[in-house]
Write a structure and sequence with these properties.
Distance between the termini: 40 Å
Structural class: alpha/beta
Order of helices and strands: EHEHEHHHEEEEHHEHHHHEHEEHHHHHHH
Number of domains: 2
CATH architecture of the largest domain: 3-Layer(aba) Sandwich
Strand content: 5-15%
Helix content: 25-40%
Shape: globular
Oligomer: single chain
CATH superfamily of the largest domain: Periplasmic binding protein-like II
Length: about 450
């Protein structure tokens, strides 16, 4: 029997600023207290790169150094998918990190404890010090289900040697006046053409996936799905989306500025970008540490281009508390994890955009002197982040429509975009609404 996520997200009322979270400190001269013999042992489950896991380990260590009645052990996985698979038939850790796309299964499986009362008991409120989309992402059934930890919007990475906005303006080409304020699709198109002026270099490559195309459709005034709460199909064939495709496809499938299928078979867009032979790619904050390691590569970020209004999508993760005998101790530990001091450790990894705005606006995240120079773009783009509906199997959905998305962006020659858009919507119903039966075509006799 198919299970569909049908709860509509509800933003928990924002009342006051986040109360100061003061981590217990220990004078260097004082001995670290030993845990009591009957200490409760909690587990923290997280996923991510070595740097992210190391940041969480530092949070655990600082907590264990001062706690006497509770000790915490860290368990980690490389990805949220690996963590989800590992926990499919096992109890969740006492506190654990979850990607928003997995939130529906967490709630329906009763694998979390809502947080509103637990935080209120500890005088913690999640007001203006947290990005509203982050709170909304983990709010359902009029409660905060998990505490937002990171929120990384999709942005456009660009090679600053291939795309020089000042030079473009000097040549009379449309170019953005202020990086953080963003740019129009016309300016984005001009930049792609400008980067392609050198032989063997292409201007831009957008991956043919729902996630990568979504910001363009949303910016053009359309929606990715037919319903924001309980989608039964994609919405590519809507009039707004068809108009947007008519605007963006001439650029995104222009053989003069984009990578060909043959080039994509040779290497990924990221690899072409790291070689210095591609002007722009879309991506999230987690690309930053890898790009910083590429010798000779100079890069920065811009918001996703505006077809109409500003819009983007993002990756959001949050910390949940599992039901069990130690919920109160887990809540105390959660307060430690979301403190500014702990969140700064996460921000210093370079690949996480903190949901905590105080830390996101601090040097711990902005990292002046490091690339990208305009890390504030990530914070500005959070305000434009559109949360997509939670669906049961987004991987199956992506796989079902991927050939048609590739046809939209990569196929040679002319295409009938409205027809392909309608086919995308039709194919998506096999995943989103498998009980759907297509109406028989009318007889032509």
């Amino acid at each position: 029997m198919r299970r569909r996520w049908s709860r509509r997200l509800a933003i928990v009322p924002v009342l006051v600023l986040l109360a100061p979270l003061v981590a217990a400190c220990q004078d260097d001269a004082d001995p670290v207290p030993a845990p009591s013999p009957g200490a409760v042992t909690l587990s923290l489950g997280v996923f991510g790169s070595e740097a992210v896991v190391a940041a969480y380990q530092s949070m655990v260590d600082s907590y264990n150094d001062t706690a006497q009645s509770v000790q915490v052990e860290l368990v980690s996985w490389d990805s949220s998918e690996q963590m989800t698979d590992a926990l499919a038939d096992a109890d969740a850790p006492d506190v654990y990190l979850v990607a928003r796309r997995d939130l529906a299964g967490v709630i329906e499986g009763e694998r979390n404890v809502p947080l509103f009362e637990l935080l209120a008991e500890r005088n913690i409120s999640y007001g203006d010090d947290y990005a509203p989309p982050a709170i909304e992402a983990f709010s359902a059934d009029d409660d905060l289900q998990c505490m937002p930890s990171a929120i990384s919007p999709m942005v456009m990475y660009y090679n600053t040697d291939l795309i020089d906005f000042e030079t473009m303006r000097e040549r009379g080409l449309p170019a953005p006046a202020d990086v953080v304020d963003g740019w129009t699709f016309e300016e984005f198109s001009a930049a792609a053409t400008f980067a392609s002026r050198r032989g063997g270099v292409k201007g831009v490559s957008i991956t043919p996936t729902l996630r990568s195309l979504a910001p363009f459709l949303l910016s053009g005034g359309g929606s990715l799905y037919d319903d924001a709460g309980d989608p039964t199909s994609l919405d590519f064939a809507s009039s707004d989306n068809v108009d947007t495709l008519a605007t963006v496809l001439p650029v995104l499938r222009d053989a003069g500025v984009t990578l060909s299928e043959e080039q994509l078979e040779e290497a990924s867009p990221l690899e072409w970008f790291e070689r210095g032979e591609l002007g722009m790619i879309e991506g999230f904050r987690d690309l930053v540490p890898e790009l910083r390691e590429v010798e000779g590569l100079d890069f920065d970020v811009m918001p996703m281009p505006r077809v109409g209004g500003a819009a983007t999508v993002g990756e959001v993760s949050g910390l949940c508390i599992a039901p069990g005998d130690h919920v109160q101790q887990a809540a105390d530990f959660l307060v430690h994890l979301i403190s500014d001091e702990s969140t700064e450790a996460l921000a210093r990894s370079g690949e996480v955009v903190p949901a905590n705005l105080t830390v996101a606006r601090s040097e711990a995240f902005l990292q002046p002197g490091e690339e990208p120079a305009n890390s504030g773009v990530f914070n500005a783009s959070v305000d434009d982040l559109v949360l997509l509906p939670l669906v049961d199997d987004v991987v199956a959905l992506d796989e079902a429509v991927q050939p048609l998305l590739s046809e939209l962006l990569l196929s040679l020659g002319a295409i009938d975009a409205p027809t392909v858009a309608a086919e995308i919507d039709e194919v998506s119903r096999s995943v989103l609404n498998p009980d759907y039966t297509p109406s028989p075509e009318p007889s032509t006799s």
